[in-house]
Amino acid sequence: MDIKALQAVLQDFADARGWDKFHGPKNLAMALSVEASELLEIFQWLSDDAASRIADDEVSKQHVAEELADVAIYLLRLADKVGVDLEASIQAKIIKNGEKYPAELVYGSAKKYTEY
Amino acid sequence: MDIKALQAVLQDFADARGWDKFHGPKNLAMALSVEASELLEIFQWLSDDAASRIADDEVSKQHVAEELADVAIYLLRLADKVGVDLEASIQAKIIKNGEKYPAELVYGSAKKYTEY
Amino acid sequence: MDIKALQAVLQDFADARGWDKFHGPKNLAMALSVEASELLEIFQWLSDDAASRIADDEVSKQHVAEELADVAIYLLRLADKVGVDLEASIQAKIIKNGEKYPAELVYGSAKKYTEY
Amino acid sequence: MDIKALQAVLQDFADARGWDKFHGPKNLAMALSVEASELLEIFQWLSDDAASRIADDEVSKQHVAEELADVAIYLLRLADKVGVDLEASIQAKIIKNGEKYPAELVYGSAKKYTEY
Predict the structure, then answer these.
(1) N or C terminus of chain B: which is more exposed, having fewer CB within 10 Å?
(2) Which chains touch A (3 or more CB pairs under 8 A)?
(3) How far is residue D85's CA from residue D46's CA, in Å, rounded to a whole number?
């Protein structure tokens, strides 16, 4: 995925619709959170088992794919607007998480690092 | 960004910590939503002006970058777990949004497509 | 619970701290959502069984109680700021939900009313 | 508002529909978060000015009232399921917040208590 190319497409999309004025970082952070909840809503009453089989049903899988895409779109857009290099940030965060959660210390536990 | 490579790194990360059992789609959707809210929290009391200047302050920018990365990590992980091709989904969604929101119809308006 | 009395206490609390200027409906809706996610975070990696036993542990129960209170505080505050009578709205919504989801039709199913 | 009476009505509502099995604390915390986001969505593209005038429009005010009620319903239900006395928790939290944010120290600032 070429992030910068996608961000340029999304910028053009907003410009063509006169939407850039709505796309300040605060509004985009709200929109990202709202889309993450629409994704969550799909799973809200499902058992863990049913949730893990959701992609077996094509209609449900398509629904999940669209909500994942909505989250991704606002994520890319917000990163662009605040000038954050998303890929570098992901890689830095994985390294940082590795230090916060050493494998041998946390194995099999879901506790937060502040509890160690 | 090579999405599949990143997803493989995240799978190894979870496996090394015995965390895969926690990473069902329902839990991952919750985690994604929780991280999106941590990002939102940064902006919650800021004026639109202050929010749009957030990257001027290095500490704040770094904080935003880390929360963006957390959202991205759970997004990549959830897409992987449900077998959704994230890049194809984003591209399909941009096309669909273009059809739902024709530029000439919606110019300068933030109304939802259901209101047209 | 005397809602109006609590809302007056919360208004005084904000006034005493010069916080009323931050408490527009948009910011309060963000804060409410952020607090709801902090509550959600408590349950995010728990099994359904462990979640249903959370109140057996006094520290966890206290944590849940505080996050529930945070959600309630912003809910009361937002209702006050937009002039909505919360109690009347709850009662009206229960009646409306009863019409959307007739007991005999939906028994034992978690489908959304739009699916019937 | 008689909280216990409302909680009993909501319990009967769930029982009559065979929904109690879906209403574990984890699912209710998800539902609460999803409803808080539906409320947030109303404000997402509004300016602070437009948001503060939302109740001037009867249709919008009714929409806000219904989403506030949905949040309240899941809040009451979750508090009931974990055995938390919501009113006592709110009062305890207001006192605790008063200690964390002394009026003379924080006047006019929206900083988090951890920053003082």
Answers:
(1) C
(2) B, C, D
(3) 36
* Residue with the two structure tokens 């912003």: C74
**pTM, entire model:** 0.96
The strand ranges marked E within chain C are none
Instruction: Encode pLDDT of B39-54 as tens digits.
Output: 999 999 999 999 999 9
Query: Is there a contact between A73 and B93 (Cβ–Cβ < 8 Å)?
Result: yes
The architecture of the domain spanning B3-84 is: Orthogonal Bundle (1.10)
Rounded to whole angstroms, the Cα distance separating A84 from A7 reads: 12
Q: What Cα–Cα distance (Å) separates residue C36 from each residue in B33, B41, C29, D78?
A: 10, 12, 11, 12
Nearest to C93 among D73, D81, D107 (CB): D73
Min Cα separation A34/chain D (Å)? 5
- Architecture (CATH level 2) of domain C3-83: Orthogonal Bundle (1.10)
- The residue type of C97 is N
The CA-based angle A31-B55-C36, given to 5 degrees, is 35
Residue with the two structure tokens 């957390």: B70
Does residue D28 sit at the C interface (CB-CB below 8 Å)?
A: no
Vertex A33 angle, CA A27 and A39, to 5°: 140
Query: Is residue C82 within 8 Å of residue C26, measured between CB atoms?
Result: no
- Say which CATH class A3-80 falls into: mainly alpha
Task: Provide the shortest C-alpha distance from residue A2 to chain C (in Å).
Answer: 31
Residue with tokens 């094509």: A58
Taking the CA atoms of residue B72, residue B76, residue B77 and residue B83 in that order, the dihedral angle to the nearest 10 degrees is 160
Task: Examine the pLDDT at D52 and tell me if it is beyond 90.
Answer: yes
Asked if C29 and D39 count as a contact pair (C-beta separation under 8 A), the reply is yes
Smallest CA–CA distance, residue B107 to chain D, in Å, is 14
Q: Where are the domains of chain D?
A: 3-81, 85-116
Topology of the domain comprising D3-81: Helix Hairpins (1.10.287)
pLDDT reported for residue C116:
74
Reported ipTM: the value is: 0.96
d(CA D9, CA C87): 13
Give the HSE-up count for residue D15: Cα atoms under 13 Å, Cβ half-sphere: 6
